[in-house]
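We were asked to recover a plausible sequence for a given structure. The inputs and outputs are reproduced exactly as logged, with field labels preserved.

PROBLEM: sequence recovery
POSITIONS: 335
GIVEN STRUCTURE:
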């Protein structure tokens, strides 16, 4: 059999033209893949199955539970904001230039003001310290002898008034180096809400051992030669309340001379004042004088002060009726 005409099954039939696979599909002719076509399709299939499809990929956010997923922050759309006014931009630009150019000047001015304030404060302190150091020496100079020394007094107290005040000075030693101060006063509260008051005592030597019968001594400070104790009454007293208190202190080296004295200042309204000086048996008083201190000078006054017996020993009693507020009474004696 001859095969030039396409084989025995093509005998008696016209030869078919060469048709491609795409053309056969358009004509509806069934085609069979050749070995080369199968090999190409297998390579394409392997490439497609070697990576997972995009729809099968799972992101890290999708693997987390819904409760653990953080909601995305809503971004602010700045495109909707109106542009900054041009004249305001110029104003802020000029202000920034002005401040930056004068920043050094502002800093220098601030430091200058601070230095001036500190210098003024320390100048006052230096002047006070200089007067305190050189004051005793300058007062001894001849041209300063005519200047009287300034006397300091306690501030008056208007919260209390005294109906009777008795001051006892007990000389415990014959040389006068040991003595005791005791003040017994009947007070009347003259204004509302009084919870504390002050007691003061002075001496030529040292004073210590402060005590009070009523209340508690909170603090004791020196003010211009006075030992001032602040007494807390442990209660709030109203106007019209009456109470009695005894305030005591120890006096050291205060009466060492032959002629001595005791001064009592009236710092609150007082109806009656009594001064009593108790002497040792072996050294009784010989002479007594009463004076009133007026500034830096004293004026002798005539009183009924007398030398009498006190508790079996010699002593001096001076009764002052209606003493004036702010006056200083001075009792002198020779022993």
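RECOVERED SEQUENCE:
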């Amino acid at each position: 059999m001859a095969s030039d005409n396409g084989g025995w099954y093509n005998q008696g039939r016209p030869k078919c033209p060469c048709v491609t696979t795409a053309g056969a599909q358009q004509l509806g002719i069934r085609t069979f893949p050749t070995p080369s076509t199968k090999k190409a399709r297998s390579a394409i299939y392997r490439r497609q199955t070697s990576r997972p499809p995009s729809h099968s990929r799972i992101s890290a956010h999708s693997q987390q539970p819904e409760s653990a997923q953080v909601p995305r922050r809503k971004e602010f759309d700045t495109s909707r904001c109106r542009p900054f006014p041009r004249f305001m931009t110029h104003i802020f630009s000029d202000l920034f230039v002005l401040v930056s150019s004068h920043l050094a000047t502002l800093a220098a001015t601030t430091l200058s003001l601070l230095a001036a304030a500190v210098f003024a404060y320390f100048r006052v302190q230096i002047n006070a310290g200089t007067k305190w150091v050189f004051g005793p020496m300058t007062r001894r100079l001849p041209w300063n002898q005519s200047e009287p020394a300034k006397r300091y007094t306690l501030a008056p107290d208007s919260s209390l008034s005294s109906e009777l005040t008795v001051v006892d000075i007990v000389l415990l030693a014959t040389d006068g180096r040991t003595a005791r101060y005791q003040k017994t006063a009947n007070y009347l509260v003259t204004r509302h809400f009084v919870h504390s008051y002050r007691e003061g005592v002075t001496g030529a030597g040292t004073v210590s051992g402060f005590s009070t019968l009523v209340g508690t001594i909170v603090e004791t400070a020196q003010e211009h030669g006075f030992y001032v104790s602040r007494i807390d009454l442990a209660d709030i007293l109203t106007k019209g309340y009456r109470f009695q208190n005894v305030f005591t202190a120890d006096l050291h080296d205060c009466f060492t001379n032959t002629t001595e004295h005791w001064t009592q200042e009236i710092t609150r309204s007082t109806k009656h004042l009594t001064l009593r000086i108790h002497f040792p048996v072996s050294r009784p008083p010989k002479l007594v004088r009463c004076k009133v201190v007026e500034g830096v000078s004293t004026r002798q006054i005539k009183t009924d002060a007398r030398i009498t017996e006190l508790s079996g020993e010699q002593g001096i009693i001076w009764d002052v009726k209606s003493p004036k507020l702010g006056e200083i009474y001075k009792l002198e004696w020779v022993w």
